Amino acid sequence: MDQYLKQTPYSDPGDALDLGGLPRDPGQLAHVVRDLIIHRGEGPRFDYAIPEERVHEDAESRYATEVLRILAERGDAPLTERRAPAERFVGTCRDFALLHCSLLRATGTAARLRCGFARYFDAYYADHWVTEYRLPDGSWRLADPQVHHEYDVGFDPMDVPRDQFLVATDAWRTCREGGADPRRFGVFDLNGIEGLSYHGLWFVRADVLRDLAALNGVELLPWDAWGPEILDDAALDADELALIDSVAAAGSEEELRRLYRDPRLTVPDEIVSYTTYGGVRKVTLGRT
């Protein structure tokens, strides 16, 4: 069985998901997801004041079952029915990608989350998550289930060009080879607060690790971390640079799986979560 057809503990929707009413087409499933989730920064687009507790709490949901539970609590309409903003899950790009990936796998399309950097939101390479799904010919295509008609991105969100979204390993190689300034990669003016930004090669490294974990079935939150605490470029020593170089150079899924078995790269049971609103805390991950 294709490993990317199999649900992970994070993407598994549980037994409550009604597959009968869901479309199978990846684009149609992306529309379903867009009508169920509102990004926590999108309130003004919908002329909706998102309740502060939802901004703080919803996006801390790690598992698709939690996303679906919250949606069920806010309305009993079928998942295929467009919801008013007040009935939606309030999430981040990772949540759009996770739910899209969950529905794709549930309906027979191999899919996985990708962590990296988008060029189509502003002048920077913004930290972002998308879906990657397998086409019938075996190739992979990037899709952004967050982007809808109000985003003027200039391309089909179901076929995101590779130069518009750089998966984390591509971003790492580009920075290491001098093709881009790593200071342009990261999170800028977080939560609308001017100057609250995190960027640099150290941030690209963190996304490489999260992307590798997602490719191996551990689809973490965007602010989760493990291993040595590296929060600026000065903390990147020669050994760490060589380690991430090896991940970025991997040429096959088999090699990525082999690399992930390295204890320095494997996600442990206990991680550190640099939560946006709740501060830094240790988290024990659930396993199945």
TrEMBL record:
Domain of life: Bacteria
Region (Disordered) location: 1-21
Transmembrane residue ranges: none
Coiled-coil blocks: none
Pfam family, one: Transglut_core
Organism expressing this protein natively: Streptomyces olivochromogenes
Domain Transglutaminase-like: 87-145
Phylogenetic lineage: Bacteria, Bacillati, Actinomycetota, Actinomycetes, Kitasatosporales
Biased composition (Polar residues): 1-10
Name listed for the protein in its UniProt record: Transglutaminase-like domain-containing protein
